[in-house]
């Protein structure tokens, strides 16, 4: 246990660190859902409400240092598949989010999600942690525009001599040095120092217009205040979303958030040691209930599904171990219903540093996988690489489940496969088929 003298300060710093690592969702989620015809300002308000509600519930009820907010990826599914692909109105799509939350809640109340987590083999758990580490590192490099599109090779590195790249690498080095020297709040200081280093870009040297929506300066002040917009609250078409043709949408919402949440809880527990005596994520049932309520709440207030955030690893690495970390982050979301313009001050290259560095810490469980046992090593490897390569937690863990089950069957060891895991493997195939 941590000494009481350092406990509260550590938890608060951890909460601030986590918030700074994931505050981008306040701007990015409205930008994506606005493509579905939803008012940007109203989605911003809904995003803050979901993030604050979910994180506060996670901290006060589940007592875990995990932030809950609208999930990336599932918001893209909401806009580009549910609304633009299946032809749902955004009100009907919000209704499908609500019903997926109801299903989550039932699965959690009847402990189905707990049984799924308990059925996951230890090797896959370690692989999920490492896969998430690579995933958030990849996201960090992308958000910093260090890794960029390359038509010939799919991805590539930005120009090394570019001021944005050099500033990002300088911030990464400085923050890494602060962590090595065990400076309290190292990640926060790293983000602030990198922001200061980025101020001259577009003013004294370089040009950020190519990555900053045509604005040449990377660090910008756009004002203090904006009024919240509650026009999407209660707009979900709960009954209209129950059409037979919309069942696949509800299923994908349910499956994706189910396994994104499970992957996050398992991965964070493996990386941090936040486990109960049975080796499962601590306070698991209450955490899963929180995840469920966040999704149900999201549909009611006007956002895509809420889920546990892998960026919570930033705060955990800073020493966050209790619900106080999530409460701190949750409270920090609330003012930005009124002060969202202030978020533009911190550039993406600054917040991305936290994701890259924490990603490196999350691959530690790789040493616990028996790499000399092929029927365990191969599914673990697929899980690790497919999470970042497909940009999806649910796809990565689905291939882990399926390959684990099939290879155990092929090696004559099907008796070692938990029946629940076998069923989940079949459902995973159905999910991938859709």
Q: What are the key terms here?
A:
two-stranded antiparallel sheet, two-stranded antiparallel ribbon, disordered N terminus, mainly alpha, 434 residues, 17 helices
Strand order of the largest sheet: 1-4
Distance between the termini: 46 Å
Give a quick account of the main beta sheet: strands, pairing sense, barrel closure. Answer: 2 strands, antiparallel
Say how many strands there are. Answer: 4
Question: What is the alpha-carbon Rg in Å?
Answer: 21 Å
- Runs in which pLDDT lies below 50 for 5 or more consecutive residues are 1-5
The computed structural class is mainly alpha
Shape, principal axes of CA atoms: globular
Beta-strand percentage range:
under 5%
The helix count comes to 17
The topology string of helices and strands comes to HHHEHHHHEEHHHHEHHHHHH
Helix share of residues? 55-70%
Let me know the average pLDDT: 88
Task: Walk me through what this model shows.
The protein is mainly alpha-helical. The protein contains 17 helices and 4 strands. A two-stranded antiparallel sheet has the order 1-4. It has a two-stranded antiparallel ribbon with strand order 2-3. A hairpin with a 3-residue loop joins strand 2 and strand 3. Helix 16 packs across helix 17. The N terminus is likely disordered.
